[in-house]
Amino acid sequence: MTASFLYSAVRTPFGRFGGALAKVRPDDLAATALRGVLDTVPALDPATIGDVIYGNANGAGEDNRNVARMAVLLAGLPTSVPGSTVNRLCGSSLDAAMTASRMVEAGDAEVVVAGGVESMSRAPWVLPKPERGYPAGDLNAVSTTLGWRLVNERMPKEWTASLGECNEQLADRYAISRQRQDEFAARSHRLAHAAWEAGFYDDLVIPVENTGLHKDEGVRADSSPETLAGLRPSFRPDGSITAGNASPLSDGAAALVIGSERAGSLIGSDPVARFAGRGVHALDPRDFGFAPVEAANVALARAGIDWSDVGAVELNEAFAVQSLACIEAWKIDHDIVNTKGGAIAIGHPLGVSGARVLGTLARRLASEGERWGVAAICIGVGQALAVVLENVTGTGECS
Length: 399
What we know:
Elements: E1 5-11, E2 15-16, H1 26-39, E3 51-55, H2 67-74, E4 83-86, H3 92-106, E5 111-119, E6 125-126, E7 142-143, H4 163-174, H5 178-198, H6 225-228, E8 250-259, H7 264-267, E9 273-282, H8 292-303, E10 310-315, H9 320-330, H10 343-346, H11 353-368, E11 372-379, E12 383-391
Parallel strand pairs: 3-4, 3-5, 10-11
Antiparallel strand pairs: 1-8, 1-9, 2-8, 5-8, 6-7, 9-12, 11-12
Helix pairs in contact: 1-2, 3-11
């Protein structure tokens, strides 16, 4: 089997729920990211792309079920370029990238574009289909934006608790205080703002036409533990999780060019990182926030390294509490985690965040001169994914 490499990554700015990207259809967002990443590799003939794989956690509305194929058509690629959409909820786009890397390693394609898209602002309401044409009772419209909907009555109640309540339980179990969560959240905003000011995201983020949005809309430079401490708990009257120390509902898209080593001649550039290890893990649905711990450990074992080798970590910040729980379970230095900000500040459009953390990790490895990095993400209903990247830009001690 051949190795697989990441060649290029871009994403749109992430918009707030109901914010600057709320008028943009998800299929248009997907096409924007696809066209944007191909613009970074102008020598690549789009007709040579073996597949386009997008992650999408919704798919119930304008995503039109197979938003990857919609993106191919709307971006003006040849109709011979196929497209497939995968759904592993929050991990969808990381799953897409992992699938793309396996395709390359198996020799099924030389070049694959992976990515993800989500418009949480435009996620539709749904009605259960009645068993007969004119039911006597009322039907309730259910939002598809986030969380459980139309729950099977056979599902245990403790498994279908809200995402926030599940993480309140995690805070109790690991004794992670409200103060620590607020400090972590403020750090996310501070680092994201500093990264934007330093130009880290300039080549990684592409604008969306006719929106006026050029930076992540949710980053608040003035966020502090003191201001966050004034927010009310969101899930329990006496709880620790608030709108300030959890990731916000968001809109956005991302895309990655993944290929074999010999695909460099097709792409017209050198790769930036090698896919060195992949991991997936599942546990009790209510413990989903802790699932990245073992997913990352599996990925590291498959890469043949351990945590002492890792110089950069990108962990999706679904909640501050679960991020802290994972970091401390890994026994790693907090200072190598999310140094350019995380989802609490940047946003968490569900089907996009995996591609975001992977693209950010590759950029960090190159800019910081580190050899090994881990990208990990928790997934609702008790799952997680992780990828180990090896820097191959020559700026670190690479093989």
